[in-house]
Amino acid sequence: MNRKASLFAIVLAAFAAASCSGGDSPKSAFSGRSGELIVVATKAQWESETGSAIREALGSDYGYLPQEEPKFDLMLVPQEGVNRLIRTHRNMLYLNIADTAEARLSIRRDVWSAPQTMVVVSAPSAEKATSLILDNKDSIAKVFDDAERNRNMTAARAFEVKDLTAKISAI
User: Fold this and answer.
1) Distance between CA 15 and CA 154 in Å, rounded?
2) pLDDT in tens, 61-80
3) Are residues 109 and 117 in contact, defined by beta-carbon separation less than 8 angstroms?
4) What is the Cα–Cα distance from 46 to 49, expressed in whole angstroms?
């Protein structure tokens, strides 16, 4: 029994040492369902014109479907609510309104998990953020649409039957 406990302690210590090696650690797997999008903003920002612009850009109905279906299921998370679980979400829109911020959109990939897509809206005022979102709403939606499509294609490739694909391609 003592020998098993010693062996277990050695193995546990080896894993602990390997995980603390200081090298680049692999990204966590992403979380969230397809079509979900976390919006990191304050409640006041969400209930303002800026939030309306976000809902117009990303929460409006998808065209060409026989029933009403939003492009994305938007979920508001305040900055202080961005914990370890939320950080791994597949799609995030981060609203950064600060006096010192330059008005711009930036796309960040695989920040906390992989594959992850984050659009950061930076602006010195709520008005600038609103116009930035509305002026670029199609581009913002396309970034998240493309990310979802790429994830779906990657998942489908995992189940691809190579022999069958080759036979079909030969036809």
Assistant:
1) 30
2) 888 888 888 999 999 999 99
3) yes
4) 8
